[in-house]
TrEMBL record, chain A:
<keyword id="KW-0408">Iron</keyword>
<dbReference type="Pfam" id="PF00067">
    <property type="entry name" value="p450"/>
</dbReference>
<dbReference type="InterPro" id="IPR002397">
    <property type="entry name" value="Cyt_P450_B"/>
</dbReference>
<keyword id="KW-0503">Monooxygenase</keyword>
<feature type="region of interest" description="Disordered">
    <location>
        <begin position="1"/>
        <end position="25"/>
    </location>
</feature>
<dbReference type="InterPro" id="IPR017972">
    <property type="entry name" value="Cyt_P450_CS"/>
</dbReference>
<dbReference type="InterPro" id="IPR001128">
    <property type="entry name" value="Cyt_P450"/>
</dbReference>
<keyword id="KW-0479">Metal-binding</keyword>
<dbReference type="GO" id="GO:0020037">
    <property type="term" value="F:heme binding"/>
</dbReference>
From TrEMBL, chain B:
<dbReference type="InterPro" id="IPR051269">
    <property type="entry name" value="Fe-S_cluster_ET"/>
</dbReference>
<dbReference type="InterPro" id="IPR017896">
    <property type="entry name" value="4Fe4S_Fe-S-bd"/>
</dbReference>
<dbReference type="InterPro" id="IPR001080">
    <property type="entry name" value="3Fe4S_ferredoxin"/>
</dbReference>
<keyword id="KW-0479">Metal-binding</keyword>
<comment type="function">
    <text>Ferredoxins are iron-sulfur proteins that transfer electrons in a wide variety of metabolic reactions.</text>
</comment>
<dbReference type="GO" id="GO:0009055">
    <property type="term" value="F:electron transfer activity"/>
</dbReference>
<dbReference type="Pfam" id="PF13370">
    <property type="entry name" value="Fer4_13"/>
</dbReference>
<dbReference type="GO" id="GO:0005506">
    <property type="term" value="F:iron ion binding"/>
</dbReference>
<keyword id="KW-0813">Transport</keyword>
Length: 392, 94
Protein backbone atom coordinates (compact mmCIF):
# COMPACT_ATOMS: atom_id res chain seq x y z
CA UNK A 1 0.00 0.00 0.00
CA UNK A 2 2.73 2.46 0.98
CA UNK A 3 4.38 1.93 -2.37
CA UNK A 4 1.24 2.83 -4.30
CA UNK A 5 1.20 6.09 -6.17
CA UNK A 6 -0.90 8.58 -4.15
CA UNK A 7 -3.57 10.58 -5.89
CA UNK A 8 -2.74 14.28 -6.15
CA UNK A 9 -5.54 16.86 -5.89
CA UNK A 10 -5.82 20.65 -5.78
CA UNK A 11 -5.60 22.24 -2.37
CA UNK A 12 -9.17 22.31 -0.99
CA UNK A 13 -9.91 26.00 -1.19
CA UNK A 14 -13.58 26.78 -1.09
CA UNK A 15 -14.95 28.04 -4.37
CA UNK A 16 -17.72 30.61 -4.71
CA UNK A 17 -21.03 29.00 -5.57
CA UNK A 18 -19.88 25.51 -4.60
CA UNK A 19 -21.89 23.79 -1.87
CA UNK A 20 -20.10 23.07 1.38
CA UNK A 21 -18.74 20.51 2.09
CA UNK A 22 -17.76 20.31 -1.57
CA UNK A 23 -18.73 17.20 -3.56
CA UNK A 24 -14.99 16.75 -4.20
CA UNK A 25 -14.68 15.49 -0.61
CA UNK A 26 -16.93 12.51 -1.39
CA UNK A 27 -14.61 11.69 -4.24
CA UNK A 28 -11.46 11.96 -2.09
CA UNK A 29 -13.04 9.79 0.58
CA UNK A 30 -13.69 6.97 -1.89
CA UNK A 31 -10.01 6.90 -2.80
CA UNK A 32 -8.19 4.26 -0.71
CA UNK A 33 -5.62 5.72 1.67
CA UNK A 34 -5.04 9.46 1.70
CA UNK A 35 -4.92 12.06 -1.05
CA UNK A 36 -1.93 14.30 -1.57
CA UNK A 37 -2.03 18.01 -2.22
CA UNK A 38 0.46 20.85 -2.43
CA UNK A 39 0.39 24.18 -0.65
CA UNK A 40 1.26 27.30 -2.66
CA UNK A 41 4.73 27.21 -1.08
CA UNK A 42 5.25 23.77 -2.64
CA UNK A 43 5.05 21.77 0.59
CA UNK A 44 3.36 18.40 0.40
CA UNK A 45 0.25 18.04 2.53
CA UNK A 46 -1.82 14.92 3.08
CA UNK A 47 -5.58 15.38 3.16
CA UNK A 48 -7.49 13.11 5.49
CA UNK A 49 -11.18 12.73 4.72
CA UNK A 50 -12.53 9.58 6.34
CA UNK A 51 -13.97 9.79 9.87
CA UNK A 52 -11.88 6.92 11.19
CA UNK A 53 -8.67 8.32 9.69
CA UNK A 54 -9.32 11.83 11.01
CA UNK A 55 -9.75 10.48 14.53
CA UNK A 56 -6.59 8.37 14.12
CA UNK A 57 -4.53 11.38 13.00
CA UNK A 58 -5.82 13.58 15.81
CA UNK A 59 -4.80 11.04 18.47
CA UNK A 60 -1.44 9.96 17.04
CA UNK A 61 1.56 10.99 19.10
CA UNK A 62 3.87 11.03 16.08
CA UNK A 63 1.73 13.83 14.66
CA UNK A 64 2.16 17.34 16.04
CA UNK A 65 0.12 20.54 16.33
CA UNK A 66 3.20 22.72 16.71
CA UNK A 67 3.64 25.17 13.81
CA UNK A 68 7.34 25.52 14.65
CA UNK A 69 8.01 22.08 13.18
CA UNK A 70 9.39 22.01 9.66
CA UNK A 71 6.69 21.19 7.15
CA UNK A 72 3.76 22.42 9.22
CA UNK A 73 1.01 23.32 6.72
CA UNK A 74 0.83 27.07 7.00
CA UNK A 75 -2.39 27.67 5.12
CA UNK A 76 -2.46 31.38 5.89
CA UNK A 77 -0.46 32.03 2.69
CA UNK A 78 -3.28 30.33 0.89
CA UNK A 79 -6.20 31.90 2.66
CA UNK A 80 -4.88 35.42 2.99
CA UNK A 81 -5.12 35.50 6.75
CA UNK A 82 -2.32 36.55 9.09
CA UNK A 83 -0.39 33.69 10.64
CA UNK A 84 -1.06 33.22 14.32
CA UNK A 85 2.26 33.87 15.92
CA UNK A 86 3.58 31.38 18.43
CA UNK A 87 2.86 33.67 21.34
CA UNK A 88 3.27 32.28 24.87
CA UNK A 89 0.05 30.70 26.03
CA UNK A 90 -1.13 29.87 22.49
CA UNK A 91 -1.44 26.26 23.55
CA UNK A 92 -3.37 24.94 20.56
CA UNK A 93 0.06 25.04 18.92
CA UNK A 94 1.71 22.90 21.59
CA UNK A 95 1.82 19.13 22.02
CA UNK A 96 1.55 17.11 25.21
CA UNK A 97 3.03 17.40 27.76
CA UNK A 98 3.72 21.17 27.27
CA UNK A 99 0.14 21.68 26.14
CA UNK A 100 -1.39 19.96 29.16
CA UNK A 101 -0.42 22.57 31.75
CA UNK A 102 -2.58 25.15 29.97
CA UNK A 103 -5.48 22.84 29.25
CA UNK A 104 -5.56 21.56 32.83
CA UNK A 105 -5.63 25.11 34.18
CA UNK A 106 -8.64 25.92 32.01
CA UNK A 107 -10.70 22.72 32.18
CA UNK A 108 -12.47 23.69 35.44
CA UNK A 109 -13.79 26.82 33.70
CA UNK A 110 -15.64 24.83 31.05
CA UNK A 111 -17.14 21.87 32.89
CA UNK A 112 -20.73 20.90 32.22
CA UNK A 113 -21.63 22.27 35.65
CA UNK A 114 -19.88 25.59 35.14
CA UNK A 115 -21.50 26.08 31.76
CA UNK A 116 -24.89 25.31 33.29
CA UNK A 117 -24.24 28.04 35.84
CA UNK A 118 -23.60 30.46 33.00
CA UNK A 119 -27.00 29.80 31.43
CA UNK A 120 -28.87 32.72 33.04
CA UNK A 121 -26.15 35.14 31.91
CA UNK A 122 -26.30 33.76 28.36
CA UNK A 123 -30.10 33.96 28.36
CA UNK A 124 -29.87 37.60 29.43
CA UNK A 125 -27.37 38.43 26.67
CA UNK A 126 -29.55 36.79 24.02
CA UNK A 127 -32.71 38.56 25.28
CA UNK A 128 -30.99 41.93 25.19
CA UNK A 129 -29.78 41.39 21.65
CA UNK A 130 -33.25 40.39 20.50
CA UNK A 131 -34.68 43.47 22.27
CA UNK A 132 -32.22 45.55 20.26
CA UNK A 133 -33.19 43.79 17.02
CA UNK A 134 -36.88 44.44 17.61
CA UNK A 135 -36.25 48.05 18.61
CA UNK A 136 -34.29 48.60 15.41
CA UNK A 137 -37.14 48.02 12.96
CA UNK A 138 -38.20 45.05 10.86
CA UNK A 139 -34.95 44.18 9.14
CA UNK A 140 -31.48 43.32 10.39
CA UNK A 141 -28.17 41.76 9.50
CA UNK A 142 -28.25 38.81 11.87
CA UNK A 143 -24.48 38.35 11.62
CA UNK A 144 -23.51 41.87 12.76
CA UNK A 145 -26.53 42.43 15.01
CA UNK A 146 -26.88 39.03 16.69
CA UNK A 147 -24.54 36.16 15.79
CA UNK A 148 -21.31 38.09 16.42
CA UNK A 149 -22.30 40.10 19.51
CA UNK A 150 -23.76 37.14 21.45
CA UNK A 151 -20.55 35.06 21.74
CA UNK A 152 -18.43 38.18 22.25
CA UNK A 153 -20.63 39.27 25.14
CA UNK A 154 -20.57 35.74 26.58
CA UNK A 155 -16.77 35.73 26.49
CA UNK A 156 -16.60 39.15 28.09
CA UNK A 157 -18.87 37.88 30.88
CA UNK A 158 -16.70 34.78 31.27
CA UNK A 159 -13.53 36.86 31.52
CA UNK A 160 -15.09 39.33 33.92
CA UNK A 161 -15.03 42.35 31.60
CA UNK A 162 -16.93 45.08 33.50
CA UNK A 163 -20.31 45.95 31.90
CA UNK A 164 -19.13 49.46 31.08
CA UNK A 165 -16.36 48.03 28.85
CA UNK A 166 -18.43 45.42 27.02
CA UNK A 167 -19.36 47.66 24.14
CA UNK A 168 -15.69 48.46 23.54
CA UNK A 169 -14.81 44.78 23.77
CA UNK A 170 -17.60 43.75 21.43
CA UNK A 171 -16.83 46.37 18.78
CA UNK A 172 -13.13 45.47 18.69
CA UNK A 173 -13.79 41.74 18.47
CA UNK A 174 -16.26 42.40 15.63
CA UNK A 175 -13.60 44.36 13.74
CA UNK A 176 -11.26 41.35 13.97
CA UNK A 177 -13.81 39.05 12.37
CA UNK A 178 -15.32 41.34 9.74
CA UNK A 179 -12.80 40.68 7.00
CA UNK A 180 -14.96 42.49 4.46
CA UNK A 181 -16.01 45.48 6.52
CA UNK A 182 -12.57 46.22 7.99
CA UNK A 183 -9.09 46.80 6.61
CA UNK A 184 -5.91 44.95 7.63
CA UNK A 185 -4.85 48.10 9.45
CA UNK A 186 -8.11 48.33 11.39
CA UNK A 187 -7.83 44.69 12.40
CA UNK A 188 -4.24 45.19 13.47
CA UNK A 189 -5.26 48.17 15.60
CA UNK A 190 -8.19 46.24 17.08
CA UNK A 191 -5.88 43.32 17.99
CA UNK A 192 -3.48 45.65 19.79
CA UNK A 193 -6.30 47.46 21.58
CA UNK A 194 -7.72 44.14 22.75
CA UNK A 195 -4.34 42.85 23.91
CA UNK A 196 -3.70 46.10 25.77
CA UNK A 197 -7.16 45.90 27.30
CA UNK A 198 -6.67 42.27 28.35
CA UNK A 199 -3.31 43.06 29.93
CA UNK A 200 -4.90 45.89 31.91
CA UNK A 201 -7.80 43.65 32.94
CA UNK A 202 -5.36 41.01 34.20
CA UNK A 203 -3.52 43.67 36.22
CA UNK A 204 -6.82 44.84 37.73
CA UNK A 205 -7.87 41.27 38.61
CA UNK A 206 -4.47 40.71 40.21
CA UNK A 207 -5.19 43.57 42.58
CA UNK A 208 -8.93 43.11 42.98
CA UNK A 209 -9.85 39.49 42.26
CA UNK A 210 -13.47 38.75 41.37
CA UNK A 211 -15.60 35.72 40.62
CA UNK A 212 -14.34 35.25 37.06
CA UNK A 213 -12.04 33.14 34.92
CA UNK A 214 -9.09 35.54 34.99
CA UNK A 215 -9.12 35.81 38.78
CA UNK A 216 -9.34 32.04 39.22
CA UNK A 217 -6.60 31.44 36.66
CA UNK A 218 -4.36 33.94 38.44
CA UNK A 219 -5.03 32.18 41.74
CA UNK A 220 -3.68 28.90 40.34
CA UNK A 221 -0.32 30.61 39.93
CA UNK A 222 0.55 28.31 37.03
CA UNK A 223 0.75 30.85 34.21
CA UNK A 224 3.09 33.77 33.67
CA UNK A 225 1.66 37.20 32.79
CA UNK A 226 2.69 36.73 29.14
CA UNK A 227 1.05 33.32 29.03
CA UNK A 228 -2.10 34.75 30.59
CA UNK A 229 -2.61 37.25 27.81
CA UNK A 230 -1.90 34.59 25.16
CA UNK A 231 -4.41 32.22 26.73
CA UNK A 232 -7.07 34.92 26.98
CA UNK A 233 -6.62 36.04 23.36
CA UNK A 234 -6.86 32.39 22.33
CA UNK A 235 -10.12 31.92 24.23
CA UNK A 236 -11.48 35.03 22.60
CA UNK A 237 -10.54 34.05 19.07
CA UNK A 238 -11.45 30.38 19.46
CA UNK A 239 -14.86 31.13 20.91
CA UNK A 240 -16.04 34.07 18.88
CA UNK A 241 -16.28 33.67 15.12
CA UNK A 242 -16.71 29.89 15.36
CA UNK A 243 -19.78 30.29 17.54
CA UNK A 244 -21.08 33.21 15.48
CA UNK A 245 -20.87 31.20 12.26
CA UNK A 246 -22.70 28.28 13.83
CA UNK A 247 -25.44 30.61 15.05
CA UNK A 248 -25.83 32.26 11.63
CA UNK A 249 -25.69 29.07 9.56
CA UNK A 250 -28.02 27.32 12.00
CA UNK A 251 -30.60 30.09 11.66
CA UNK A 252 -30.47 29.84 7.86
CA UNK A 253 -30.85 26.07 8.03
CA UNK A 254 -33.84 26.43 10.34
CA UNK A 255 -35.44 28.99 8.02
CA UNK A 256 -35.06 26.47 5.21
CA UNK A 257 -36.22 23.54 7.40
CA UNK A 258 -38.86 25.15 9.64
CA UNK A 259 -40.17 21.77 10.83
CA UNK A 260 -37.12 21.59 13.11
CA UNK A 261 -37.64 24.94 14.82
CA UNK A 262 -37.86 24.38 18.57
CA UNK A 263 -36.06 21.02 18.51
CA UNK A 264 -32.94 21.03 20.69
CA UNK A 265 -31.27 18.36 18.55
CA UNK A 266 -30.72 20.99 15.89
CA UNK A 267 -27.61 22.12 17.77
CA UNK A 268 -25.66 18.90 17.34
CA UNK A 269 -26.76 18.46 13.74
CA UNK A 270 -25.81 22.04 12.86
CA UNK A 271 -22.34 21.43 14.25
CA UNK A 272 -21.95 18.32 12.14
CA UNK A 273 -23.71 19.47 9.00
CA UNK A 274 -21.91 22.79 8.60
CA UNK A 275 -18.56 21.82 10.19
CA UNK A 276 -17.39 25.43 10.16
CA UNK A 277 -13.84 24.61 11.31
CA UNK A 278 -12.93 22.38 8.37
CA UNK A 279 -9.45 23.84 7.88
CA UNK A 280 -8.54 24.46 11.50
CA UNK A 281 -6.91 21.25 12.77
CA UNK A 282 -3.55 21.44 11.01
CA UNK A 283 -0.86 18.90 11.77
CA UNK A 284 2.64 17.77 10.81
CA UNK A 285 4.28 14.36 11.14
CA UNK A 286 7.29 14.50 13.45
CA UNK A 287 8.24 10.89 12.76
CA UNK A 288 7.48 8.62 9.83
CA UNK A 289 3.96 7.37 10.44
CA UNK A 290 1.40 5.27 8.60
CA UNK A 291 -2.18 6.44 8.32
CA UNK A 292 -4.80 4.48 6.41
CA UNK A 293 -2.02 2.42 4.83
CA UNK A 294 -0.21 5.50 3.58
CA UNK A 295 3.31 6.23 4.77
CA UNK A 296 3.68 9.85 5.82
CA UNK A 297 7.26 11.05 6.15
CA UNK A 298 8.48 13.12 9.07
CA UNK A 299 8.13 16.77 8.10
CA UNK A 300 5.09 16.32 5.87
CA UNK A 301 1.95 18.28 6.61
CA UNK A 302 -1.40 16.69 7.33
CA UNK A 303 -4.83 18.31 7.16
CA UNK A 304 -7.70 16.35 8.67
CA UNK A 305 -10.76 17.78 6.92
CA UNK A 306 -13.41 17.60 9.61
CA UNK A 307 -16.24 18.53 7.24
CA UNK A 308 -15.28 15.56 5.07
CA UNK A 309 -15.18 13.27 8.11
CA UNK A 310 -18.55 14.57 9.28
CA UNK A 311 -20.08 13.69 5.92
CA UNK A 312 -18.61 10.20 5.76
CA UNK A 313 -21.40 7.85 4.67
CA UNK A 314 -19.67 4.96 6.48
CA UNK A 315 -20.51 6.70 9.74
CA UNK A 316 -23.47 8.99 9.09
CA UNK A 317 -26.60 7.76 7.34
CA UNK A 318 -27.45 10.07 4.42
CA UNK A 319 -24.66 12.44 5.51
CA UNK A 320 -25.69 15.30 3.25
CA UNK A 321 -29.18 15.43 4.72
CA UNK A 322 -29.86 17.82 7.61
CA UNK A 323 -31.45 15.44 10.07
CA UNK A 324 -31.43 16.45 13.74
CA UNK A 325 -33.09 13.13 14.61
CA UNK A 326 -30.06 11.10 13.55
CA UNK A 327 -28.57 8.99 16.31
CA UNK A 328 -24.91 9.20 15.28
CA UNK A 329 -23.51 11.94 17.46
CA UNK A 330 -19.77 11.32 17.21
CA UNK A 331 -18.95 14.02 14.70
CA UNK A 332 -15.56 15.71 14.85
CA UNK A 333 -16.78 19.29 14.43
CA UNK A 334 -14.87 20.17 17.61
CA UNK A 335 -11.85 18.14 16.59
CA UNK A 336 -10.74 15.08 18.51
CA UNK A 337 -7.97 14.10 20.90
CA UNK A 338 -6.32 16.36 23.45
CA UNK A 339 -7.04 19.51 21.47
CA UNK A 340 -10.77 18.93 21.13
CA UNK A 341 -12.56 22.23 21.68
CA UNK A 342 -12.45 23.18 25.34
CA UNK A 343 -15.47 25.46 25.06
CA UNK A 344 -17.71 23.02 23.22
CA UNK A 345 -20.36 22.82 25.91
CA UNK A 346 -20.51 26.58 26.16
CA UNK A 347 -21.01 26.81 22.38
CA UNK A 348 -23.80 24.24 22.53
CA UNK A 349 -25.66 26.23 25.17
CA UNK A 350 -25.20 29.50 23.25
CA UNK A 351 -26.54 27.92 20.07
CA UNK A 352 -29.49 26.30 21.83
CA UNK A 353 -30.58 29.51 23.55
CA UNK A 354 -29.98 31.64 20.45
CA UNK A 355 -32.11 29.45 18.15
CA UNK A 356 -34.88 28.92 20.68
CA UNK A 357 -35.33 32.54 21.73
CA UNK A 358 -34.90 34.00 18.26
CA UNK A 359 -37.71 31.90 16.78
CA UNK A 360 -39.92 32.22 19.87
CA UNK A 361 -39.69 35.99 19.93
CA UNK A 362 -39.60 36.63 16.17
CA UNK A 363 -41.85 33.92 14.73
CA UNK A 364 -42.17 35.80 11.42
CA UNK A 365 -38.42 35.74 10.82
CA UNK A 366 -37.46 35.21 7.17
CA UNK A 367 -34.57 35.73 4.78
CA UNK A 368 -34.51 39.17 3.15
CA UNK A 369 -32.62 37.84 0.11
CA UNK A 370 -32.85 34.53 -1.77
CA UNK A 371 -30.67 31.89 -0.12
CA UNK A 372 -28.44 31.70 -3.22
CA UNK A 373 -27.51 35.34 -2.69
CA UNK A 374 -26.31 34.93 0.88
CA UNK A 375 -22.61 35.86 1.04
CA UNK A 376 -20.90 32.68 2.19
CA UNK A 377 -17.36 32.99 3.47
CA UNK A 378 -15.34 31.35 0.76
CA UNK A 379 -12.44 33.59 1.63
CA UNK A 380 -11.88 32.85 5.32
CA UNK A 381 -10.47 29.92 7.24
CA UNK A 382 -13.85 29.26 8.84
CA UNK A 383 -17.06 28.62 6.95
CA UNK A 384 -19.82 31.05 7.69
CA UNK A 385 -21.67 34.06 6.38
CA UNK A 386 -20.43 37.60 5.91
CA UNK A 387 -23.97 38.87 6.31
CA UNK A 388 -27.38 37.43 7.01
CA UNK A 389 -30.07 39.89 5.90
CA UNK A 390 -33.40 39.04 7.51
CA UNK A 391 -36.81 40.65 7.99
CA UNK A 392 -39.95 39.98 10.00
CA UNK B 1 -21.07 -4.00 32.70
CA UNK B 2 -18.05 -2.64 34.52
CA UNK B 3 -16.20 0.53 33.69
CA UNK B 4 -12.98 2.24 34.60
CA UNK B 5 -11.92 5.83 34.02
CA UNK B 6 -8.49 7.36 33.64
CA UNK B 7 -8.32 10.97 34.79
CA UNK B 8 -4.71 11.23 33.56
CA UNK B 9 -5.97 10.88 30.01
CA UNK B 10 -9.05 13.05 30.51
CA UNK B 11 -9.11 16.37 28.65
CA UNK B 12 -12.29 17.65 30.27
CA UNK B 13 -14.53 17.67 27.21
CA UNK B 14 -17.45 16.72 29.46
CA UNK B 15 -19.05 14.42 26.91
CA UNK B 16 -19.37 11.57 29.40
CA UNK B 17 -21.30 13.77 31.84
CA UNK B 18 -23.67 14.88 29.10
CA UNK B 19 -24.14 11.32 27.83
CA UNK B 20 -24.45 9.45 31.11
CA UNK B 21 -24.91 11.85 34.03
CA UNK B 22 -25.82 8.98 36.38
CA UNK B 23 -22.47 7.31 35.76
CA UNK B 24 -19.91 10.05 35.21
CA UNK B 25 -19.08 13.33 36.86
CA UNK B 26 -16.33 15.95 36.65
CA UNK B 27 -14.27 16.50 39.81
CA UNK B 28 -13.06 19.84 41.19
CA UNK B 29 -10.41 19.95 38.47
CA UNK B 30 -12.98 19.19 35.79
CA UNK B 31 -11.61 15.70 35.18
CA UNK B 32 -13.63 12.52 34.81
CA UNK B 33 -14.70 10.62 37.87
CA UNK B 34 -17.05 7.64 38.02
CA UNK B 35 -20.15 7.71 40.22
CA UNK B 36 -20.30 3.94 39.92
CA UNK B 37 -18.00 1.31 38.45
CA UNK B 38 -20.90 -1.05 37.79
CA UNK B 39 -23.56 0.97 35.98
CA UNK B 40 -27.11 -0.32 35.81
CA UNK B 41 -27.92 -2.30 32.66
CA UNK B 42 -30.27 0.55 31.74
CA UNK B 43 -27.27 2.84 31.43
CA UNK B 44 -25.56 0.65 28.85
CA UNK B 45 -26.38 2.76 25.79
CA UNK B 46 -25.55 5.99 27.58
CA UNK B 47 -22.18 4.60 28.68
CA UNK B 48 -21.44 3.37 25.15
CA UNK B 49 -22.18 6.84 23.85
CA UNK B 50 -19.85 8.33 26.45
CA UNK B 51 -17.08 5.98 25.31
CA UNK B 52 -17.74 6.83 21.67
CA UNK B 53 -17.70 10.58 22.29
CA UNK B 54 -14.73 10.76 24.65
CA UNK B 55 -11.95 12.42 22.63
CA UNK B 56 -9.11 11.11 24.77
CA UNK B 57 -10.06 7.46 25.34
CA UNK B 58 -10.34 7.98 29.08
CA UNK B 59 -13.20 5.53 29.64
CA UNK B 60 -12.93 1.77 29.41
CA UNK B 61 -15.84 -0.64 29.38
CA UNK B 62 -15.13 -4.16 30.52
CA UNK B 63 -18.00 -5.98 28.93
CA UNK B 64 -17.90 -9.73 29.37
CA UNK B 65 -19.17 -11.70 26.43
CA UNK B 66 -18.77 -9.06 23.75
CA UNK B 67 -15.07 -8.47 24.01
CA UNK B 68 -14.48 -5.11 25.45
CA UNK B 69 -15.27 -1.83 23.97
CA UNK B 70 -13.14 1.06 24.87
CA UNK B 71 -11.40 4.01 23.48
CA UNK B 72 -7.89 3.10 24.53
CA UNK B 73 -7.05 0.89 21.65
CA UNK B 74 -5.49 3.20 19.12
CA UNK B 75 -3.05 5.20 21.05
CA UNK B 76 -0.58 5.37 18.23
CA UNK B 77 -2.93 4.66 15.40
CA UNK B 78 -1.78 1.09 15.42
CA UNK B 79 -1.51 -1.98 17.61
CA UNK B 80 -4.98 -2.70 18.87
CA UNK B 81 -5.27 -4.61 22.08
CA UNK B 82 -7.12 -7.85 22.33
CA UNK B 83 -9.30 -6.61 25.12
CA UNK B 84 -8.61 -9.24 27.74
CA UNK B 85 -7.36 -8.36 31.19
CA UNK B 86 -6.91 -4.73 30.26
CA UNK B 87 -5.13 -2.77 32.95
CA UNK B 88 -5.15 -5.86 35.08
CA UNK B 89 -8.84 -5.42 35.77
CA UNK B 90 -10.79 -8.64 35.84
CA UNK B 91 -13.70 -8.00 33.58
CA UNK B 92 -17.21 -9.11 34.14
CA UNK B 93 -20.40 -7.91 32.67
CA UNK B 94 -22.50 -9.28 35.54
Amino acid sequence: MTGAQPRVVDFPLRRPGEPFPPPRYDDYRRHPGLVLSYLPNGNRVWLVTRHEDVRAVLTNKKISSNPDHTGFPNISDTMGVPRQEQIPGWFVGLDSPEHDRFRKALIPEFTVRRVREMRPAIERIVEERIDALLAGGRTADLVADFALPVPSLVISTLLGVPPADREFFESRTRTLVAIRASTDRQRDTATKELLRYINRLVAIKEKWPGNDLISRLLATGTLSAQEMSGVLMLLLIAGHETTANNIALGVVTLLLNPAWVGDGRVVEETLRYHSVADLVSLRVAVEDVEVSGQLIRAGEGIIPLVAAANHDAEVFTCPHAFDPARTERHHVAFGYGVHQCLGQNLVRVEMEIAYRRLFERIPGLELAVPVEELPFKHDGVLCGLHELPVRW
Amino acid sequence: MRISVDSDRCVGAGQCVLSAPEVFDQDAEGLVTALTFAPDPGERDAVRQAVELCPSHAITVHDHGQGHSQGRDHDHGQGREDGRGHDGVVVDDG
